[in-house]
Amino acid sequence: MSIRLRLALLFSVILALTLVVSGGLLYVSVSQLTIGVHRDTLEENHQAITSSRGFELDKLEMPRGKPSSPELLAQTRSLDGSVVDASDNLGEVELPLSDEQLAKVLDGEETTQTFTIGGDRFLVYSERVYERGQTIGVLQVARSLAETDRTMATLRNSLLVGIVAVTLAAFGLGWVLAGTALRPIDRIGQAARRIGDARDFRRRIDDSGPNDEIGRLAHTINGMLFELEAAHNQTERALVAQRRFVADASHELRTPLTTIRGNLDLLQRDPPIPPEEQAAVLVDVISETERLIRLANDLLTLERADAAWPLPAEPTPIRPVIDEVVRQARALDPDREIVVDEIPDVSVSANRDAIKQTLLILLDNAIKHTPTGTPVAVGANANPAEASVSVRDRGQGIPTEAEQHLFERFYRGEDQRSGAGVGLGLAIARALVESQRGRITVESQPERGSTFTVTFARSQATAP
Questions:
Q1: Is 140 left (phi over 0), alpha (psi -120 to 50) or beta?
Q2: pLDDT, tens digit (0-9, with 9 covering 90-100), for 205-263
Q3: For residues 36-72, b (16+ Cβ closer than 10 Å) or e, as one string?
Q4: Residues 69, 91: contact at Cβ < 8 Å?
Q5: Which of 93, 109, 171, 456 is most exposed, with the fewest beta carbons within 10 Å of its own?
Q6: Which helix (H) or strand (E) holds 365?
Q7: What pTM did the predictor assign?
Q8: What is the 8-class DSSP label of residue 396?
Q9: Residue 446 contacts by C-beta under 8 Å, 6 or more apart in sequence?
Q10: Are 320 and 437 within one domain?
């Protein structure tokens, strides 16, 4: 059952119940009002009969000049309840009066009841009769309710027909109104279905209407589409990066493996190659093996970052770490000048090995992208809450379109694809920094170089 049909039925049922209750109250009110009018008329007839000259219980005479007299039935009873006299139009019929009602009438009460003659209802009014201040009997007057019953039946049938007609009309009107109210929702559903079928998450739902429930629904769906678009784009970029990584990794792995295989073939040659050539072959095998180990270590580091392996944080002085990293970098490239600025004597709350590995990655990148003979600089700054270490190079800078992808895994600029590495260094650096609740940023200017900065919270404890 559709929402539209449920709304139309609910509207019709509520209206029908309202009409039934209202019609019932109207019917009961009219019925009671009509009976009350008949009772008042019978009371007037009772007074007219008893006040007429010469009234006696055994000589009942109907008052003259009353248009209603032919419809009026009358009967007198003695104190013991026996019938004394009756009007001619009663014939053999006796107006009812039980012993209990007789006792009430004799005590001064007035009673009213209905009875049926020939299928027609009659209303009977009973009241005692006085003579010289003494109760001498009971006078009963009655009037037919046939016309009233026909009128009430007509009213009842009219109410039933009206309720059914109004309910059907209300159902049709509710169907139209529900369709009008639900049409924007249907339009939103169709638009969302088209977007899903086309897998075009750039499209949006039109939410130019009022800011009601439907407008908020469209706004919410647009927000979901925005998130889906972002996730889809991120997935696409990840797939592109992975395909690039597969190509780079295949090249990086194929080269050392081919070299190792060729060198092993040389070692298996018969007759064997000279000893000095064997030594050179072993050096090549060891170098290429170390290259494979570095690649495996990089991938393992990223896998641990994805798994959120905890790194113990402790108060770590930054000056000794920078001195050690600079010393190792100078050993890797003795001809490279590395300038160290003034380093404040502060400690950060981080893992010492993670800081060291991050700075080594940044220094290695700076050395690779700085022309020979141009120095690389390392500096540090601190404030009461944080301390940062920066590495500056004097290279060509980073293109604007590459900055947003710089820390993505497997990403390398087009001008670096022929170089060593597979683009994991900066991704590892960011993973290590963020696992320590730090942040890494970059500022670059074309032809003037780039500055990478890592920032950690300062430690309030004393460094070991």
A1: beta
A2: 676 666 776 777 777 777 787 777 788 787 887 777 677 666 666 666 776 788 788 88
A3: eebeebbeebbebbbeeeebebeebebbeeeeebebb
A4: no
A5: 109
A6: helix 352-368
A7: 0.48
A8: S
A9: 396, 397, 399
A10: yes
Residue count of the chain, please give it. Answer: 464
271: cis peptide before it, omega within 30°?
yes
Confidence band, pLDDT 50/70/90 cuts, at residue 65:
very low
| Contact assessment for residue 399 and residue 363, using Cβ atoms and an 8 Å cutoff | no
* Amino acid present at 74: A
Q: Give the residue from 159, 205, 210, 204 showing the smallest Cα distance to 181.
A: 210
- Confirm whether 176 is domain-assigned: no
Adjacent-strand bridge partners of 221? none
CA distance 396 to 414: 14
* Contacts for 97 with CB less than 8 Å, ≥ 6 apart: 77, 81, 105, 111, 124, 126, 138, 140
Instruction: Please say whether the beta carbons of 201 and 232 come within 8 A.
Output: yes
Query: Is 194 a domain residue?
Result: no
Residue 111 is encoded by which pair of tokens? 């009673």
What CA–CA distance (Å, rounded) separates 341 from 382?
13
CA of 327: how far to CAs of 121, 124, 138, in Å? 121, 125, 133
Residue 351: CATH number of its domain: 3.30.565.10
Structural domain boundaries enclosing 49: 3-152
Domains in the chain: how many in total?
Answer: 3
